[in-house]
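Action item from last week, closing it out:
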Amino acid sequence: MYPKISIIIPVYNTEEFLEECIHSCINQTLHDIEIIIINDNSPGNCREIVKKFQQLDSRIKFIDLPKNMGTLNTRIQGYKIAQGEFIQNVDSDDSLKPEACQIIYHKLTEFQADICHINPHLYLHPDKSQKAYNKIFTPQKCSLTQKKWIEKLLTKKLDNCMCFYIIKRSLINNLIPMLPENQHIILYEDLLQIFSLAFSISVNKIISIPDQLYWYRCNVGIMSKTLDIELFKKKIANTIQVTSTIINIFNKNIIESSPETSQKLHQYLFEISVAYFNIYFSMNKEEQIQIQQYIIKHGLQNEFIYWLTEINNNESLISDTATLSINEKRIIKLYRSIKNMICSSLPNKNIVIKIIRKKFLL
């Protein structure tokens, strides 16, 4: 007999919260589950903590990665060995309410749904009684077609957090080949998975329930106000990787395609990029050059030009500059300046131009 739900827990540098997370999973009122914990080569005692629990509960499977692979690849390693009918992701600094899996599985079977969306209990760390608020995480009860689900995602009426979606394992198995396993992605990996699933894999029914079954810890790891330039380089690179991959998947596999959907997607991706490019504009010239060189060094030229070209082709975003904010205008200027830098760094500009024109029919 296969378990009803596989809980996937990627672990990296969350030693302080890991025991609470694992306790919440092994104490689920639904006993027929498996718990897959993947240690992403974390420092500290995370490995020892997991092994201690593994000796106490045979439902725990442990993968100890020899090198750090990033959140996305860590989750994928868990997906590959999961045996459950459905998959529930849990971040290792969060936790589940005791009845979570039981309620979720009951609703999935009652409505014969492929996906169940739950609502989180957001709280300000360390006090669970201090609720946090985010307008995207508004409790709601609904049953959705795939088209309606996409619409709610793009209009931010439903979130894109993987931990709040319990998904049929067969859908996850279809999703795995679409995900970039060779890229070290730590940012927007949830967005990449949810949008790839919504745009390219046929889903029968999605339900959303108002039950707040997931303890989501806010304000962890944001105490420092100083900029870590090396981490920021990775985040900028991830933004380019994820947004270009989503656009590529959308163009190739879209379940529900229309000019309006395309426009909403481009607007959505443009908006998530704004925050990181705002930080870029606060940097000095030397730091900005470091970012540009990092993009080139890590072979993101094609992805960047792909993303840049898609943005420039989206008339609703840039044709009427009067509707754009100052920062948005500066971001478009940045896109063009880095494109010029990338092209000048390559041996033959004409080859690049031909590739772009052929790929995008310019």
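Closing note: Residues 315-322, 346-362 have pLDDT under 50 and may be disordered.
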